What does this fold into?
Amino acid sequence: MMRTMSVLMAQSPELVAQTREGDVRAFTALVERYRPVVYRWAMALTGDEDEAEDITQEVFVRVHRKLWSFRGDGSFDAWLYRITRRVVLRLRPNRISPPNVADADLYITDPGARVDRQRAIALIQAIAKTLPMRQREVFVLCDIEGRTPAEVGDILDMKDVSVRASLFKARASIRRTILATHPCYQEPLR
Amino acid sequence: MNCDDYLSMLSTLPVDELAYGDARAHAATCRDCDRVTRVVAERERNMMMAFGELYPPVSAQPIAMRALEISRRRRVAFYYRIGLGIAAVVSIFGFIATRRLIPAGVHETFPLRCLSADQAIEMLRPMVSARTSISTRAGTPIGIIDVVASREDLQRVRSLLDSYDNASTSQCEVKVVVPEVKVIVR
It folds into this structure.
């Protein structure tokens, strides 16, 4: 029991090192820790629950197989995100940018009430359908997960300026519906 | 700052960044901009909450176990592929080496007595292996063929030519008949 607890409390580099040595419990702990993160990324990139599940599974298969190649000089998150991205692009190369849906769908939320799972999924799907892949990634990593443009640039192998440009476009696209309710709004973004 | 400037900022900047300076002063005096800003902030907060609440339906244990199993299978498949690749390369090199080591064949020249060189080749070709080489010599007044073949094929060629290019057995030789000369003595 103590051993299990210590594994769960271990930091990512330790879990990575233990998994490399063949420790199944360490790998399970690694999956436990990063499973929601990978699933959310997959949801944001695909907008499809079933595909997100498949992608999550495939990502951890690759993590286990490629863990030897993780040098540890960058963050594990960034390495994991790149794997997730590759899996998404490999599994659904022709379906990255689905057709647009009405912008109004973007804010299906219930202010003041707890956002339930279905609404959350609908929200993520709306983002996935509205924004091109690059903008979607940048928006999710920066505005939803709270990473800095520099960190996101490192993860996506983009320049800081490009990250900011994509972020501006994504925000503009997402906020357009709300801004349109302002009396002075004349689509200044277009 | 007017509403257009404010909306332009709101369209691209994080809402937190509008809480300072001119933007803050404008929002404090403009009810419409303030309302839109609040709506944007609230909905983005809801979006973050929604995203944070997304959890995969399958727990970690089955994902990890399945990942280990698939990973193991792929590793085995990878080694199989490597093995097959090595075997294929070895086979190809082996085949090439064997062809080089085996002597190409024994050379023998056959002067023809009845058949022309073309006729002989036409007759012999179906009876010998594909590796056997049969060639003619241009410019010679009599039919000659050169055969490069294994000992077995060469034996077969000898036997065939013996049967079909033999003057005595095939009676292919053109006999020169000298007309009798009658001498009339008067």
Remarks:
- The mean pLDDT of chain A is 77.
